[in-house]
Amino acid sequence: MKNFDWKKLLPHVIAVVVFILVAVVYCKPTLEGKVLQQTDVTLWKTMAQNSFDYQKKHGEFPLWSNAIFSGMPAFQITSVGSNPVSIVYIGNVLTLNLPKPVSFFFLACICFYFLTQVLRINPYVGLFGALSYAYATYNPIIISVGHETKMQAIAYLPAFIGSLLLLYDKRYLWGTALTALFTGLLISANHLQITYYGFLIVLIMTISFGIRWIKEKDYKRLITTGALAIGAALLGILVNAVMLFTTYEYSKRTIRGGSELANQNQKDVTTTGLSKDYAMSYSMYTSEPLVMMFPRMYGGSSGNLEVAEDKSKAIEALQQMPQQLGQQLQGALQFYWGGIDGAGGTSGPPYLGAIVCFLALLGFVLLDGKHKWWILTACILTIIMSSGKYLDGINSIFLKYLPMYNKFRAPSMILVVPTLLLSMMSVLTLDRILKFENKQLLFQKYKKGLMVVGGVFVLALLIYFSSDFSNATDKRILNNLSTITNQQQREAVETPIRSFINGMKEDRRGLFMGDILRSFLFILVAAGAIFLYIKNKLTALVVIVAIGVFAFIDVMVIDVKYLNADHFQDNTETDNTFKPSAIDLQISKDTGYYRVFDVSQGIDAAFNGGPLTSYFHNSIGGYHPAKLSIYQDLIEKQLSNFPSCLPVIDMLNTKYVITSAQQNGQQQMVQENPEALGAAWFVKAIDYKKTAAEVMAALTNFNPKDTAILEGVPNKDLVADPVKDSTASIKLLYNDNDIIQYSSSSKNAEFAVFSEVYYDAGWVATIDGKESPIIRTNYVLRGLQVPPGNHTIVFEFKPASFYNSTKAAIGASALIWLLLIGAVVATFRKNKTTS
User: Fold this and answer.
1) How many helices (H) and strands (E) does the chain have?
2) How far apart are the first and last CA of the chain?
3) Cα–Cα distance measured from residue 240 to residue 80, given in angstroms and rounded to the nearest whole number
4) Is residue 697 within a helix (H) or strand (E), and if so which, with residue range?
5) How far apart are alpha carbons 578 and 574 in whole angstroms?
6) Which of 369, 447, 718, 824 is deepest in the core (most CB within 10 A)?
């Protein structure tokens, strides 16, 4: 320690301090006790409340939740299991236990800074590069809406890549240890789509390095590095065995695993994964990735007011038209006109920064081939993939043949890949410029790089002059206008409507050109600083500071439009979100076991997180991005037709229906359903259907109290026609999420239907301790053959994927800790020997 050069540590200390200060200043309301208004977090709390109630009672989270969609696995909502040697503790250290969202920005900075140091980049270049990556506009946008797991995964991505680069650079011990660690942490963030993109980067990078080693005939390095990388990755995967194995098992039974009804020639479903239309929703125009350099060339966001009211031609047109017409058109005031407009719009552009893009483009001329070609390949490929349905031919091939790709939707999300890689290119480029010894040669290359950048501006201008600046909403309004048959009515509204549409186009045109000029000015500053450095007019430190500061200002000016102090609120306001209404309090007086259906905000909202019903009650609706496919089928074919689905409502034990009302000052009213069938019942007949589609169709008009509908041929082991027994009874004793107990009494063998969702990956039924097969009934429910006599029936949720993977996770975590300790000890001994 006496010979340790503390001066080398100073830049790293400065970097950490800067990362903390910037994150704290940007998220200052957090330190004042305020929290973000995050829609997705609100939805998650609604989903998770049932599990938290269970955890308070039992000291651990349940594996099954009763609160949403009539029941589903809880491990898809809250974490389950315990790992005393979890590597997540290291993740907590990396965030310094800072509050959210400060911790997200700090973690992204630290992980990208680590990558820059693996690449041996000037620490101060790395500092500003880390700020540019962490505050790339996509990150504040997803934080503002509550995509916290996505942000955490994005934060870990650079460290994951950096760890592998250590390994590829023959720093085997640290490379193996850190690759295992950051693979585990990346996966533990629990956003598998971002993790998938991370492994896609690794695949392309590894192929590039592998080809180079083969050309050099360095087979030993290829085999050693490959074996260590695979071993480290497997450790990182096994650390998350509980989450991964349960998710894998569950995914095969969700909408991401296809639907049984796909065989009925339905274009919206498949048998193996998401439908093409659903998977390709949120596709971008082929030219839209240019928003990484020109943020609002496609209008910015669907929701934000991107143009000031006093400068907007569209708003001016609204103010000048009749009030009633203006109110009708208010919802069409949308500046975004890109490719994902029809899929629900976007919260903002994935802007990377004009200066960052400028440096990255220079890098494709200035840098050698070690990194630029695989980075260029990955960027081109993912930009193509982001276009989704707009490059249908090639993306359909990816969807069909790329393993697991059809499990994900939102192709636009894949731009996180070029965001990371172009940020990496930018710091490599600036570092290379500052270390270039032959400045005359540097100047020649620099001029060629400027030509590449100029070509991008020419492309942007060509798009500007060839675009009509209209979106799907504009076209729909004009089409509706043409359907007005009354000429007098049409003439009365046509002029103001066309004025409004033209105003929108003018506003979008202004945003586009404004950002071309804006990006040009920022790039001019960076280009000028580099030119002066080449001509020996500026020092390297001045260039770093000038470019770094302006690059950060560049992104922050855009960031504050999508995440600012107005997005934070007091904790009391958040608490009020989950304050029970008078209706909720009224329903809660019923202490029985039942479900609630809230259609007060419409049918679609009931199944997409509109009402917060699941926070207070067991609901047949709710929100989750990966519903069980059989339940999604039930929603689409039956429940979405409410009230023309009363048999299904009854069999789901829906005792209360909340509807909208505008009387006596109340916005809601509750109706009790006397036909709700309760937790379980004996039926009088079994009706067999040949296919799943026939079962679904039969649910429209049947008596669930008397008849059970099964798929397939008659089962000789089941009661063909249960004998009517007026004294037979079956009742629920208790339902404690993972274990449910009933008692039954009958003179004859009976067939019982249980108002619980069928899930064959974990539920076990026993009658007096003897296991009995659970039969899928009425498409989504459970059925059992019950023998005569008095019996105790127990359902227990025991997914093998959970119990079998817990030991693997603990073992893998312990090995990673040993690797890290071994790397530290080896480094200490090496330094001691050297000194």
Assistant:
1) 31, 18
2) 9
3) 11
4) helix 692-698
5) 7
6) 718
Selection from 699, 587, 611, 596 nearest residue 653 by Cα: 596
Decide which of 412 and 256 is more confident: 412
Quick check: 247 and 192 in contact, CB under 8 A?
A: yes
Residues in contact with 242: Cβ distance below 8 Å, sequence separation at least 6, in sequence order = 75, 80, 81, 802, 805, 806, 809
Scanning 32-171, the segments in alpha helix (DSSP H) are 39-58, 88-94, 102-118, 123-134, 138-145, 148-168
Task: Round to whole Å and give the CA distance between 139 and 563.
Answer: 10
Tell whether the model's pLDDT for residue 489 goes beyond 60.
yes
Question: What residues contact 203, with CB distance under 8 A and at least 6 apart?
Answer: none
Q: Which residues neighbour 647 within 8 Å (Cβ) at sequence distance 6 or greater?
A: 699, 700, 701, 702, 703, 704
If you average pLDDT over every residue of the chain, what do you get?
88
| Per-residue burial over 264-275, b = 16 or more CB atoms within 10 Å of its CB, e = otherwise | eeeeebbeebbb
Say how many residues make up the chain. Answer: 835
701 three-class SS = coil
| Structure token digits, residue 54 | 């269970």
781 strand-pairing partners:
757, 777
> How do the residues of the chain divide into helix, strand and coil, expressed in percent and rounded to 5?
60, 10, 30
Structure confidence by residue, pLDDT tens digits, 588-611: 999 999 999 999 888 888 887 767
- Measured distance CA(292)–CA(353) in Å, rounded: 7
Tokens of residue 334, six digits: 């949308």
SS3 265: coil
Which token pair is 117? 């140091």
Neighbour tally for 530: CB within 10 Å: 26
If 0-12 CB within 10 Å is exposed, 13-18 middle and 19+ buried, where does residue 452 land?
middle
Burial of 536 (0-12, 13-18, 19+ CB in 10 A): exposed
Of 208, 203, 195, 211, the C-alpha closest to 229 is 203
Question: Residues 131, 132, 133, 136: is their CA dihedral positive or negative?
Answer: positive
Measured torsion, CA atoms of residues 763, 767, 771, 773, in degrees rounded to the nearest 10? -60
Closest CA to 476 of 286, 328, 276, 306: 328
Helices (H), 692-738: 692-698
What sign does the CA torsion over 617, 621, 627, 632 have? positive
Worst-scoring range by mean pLDDT, 81-90, 145-154, 376-385? 81-90
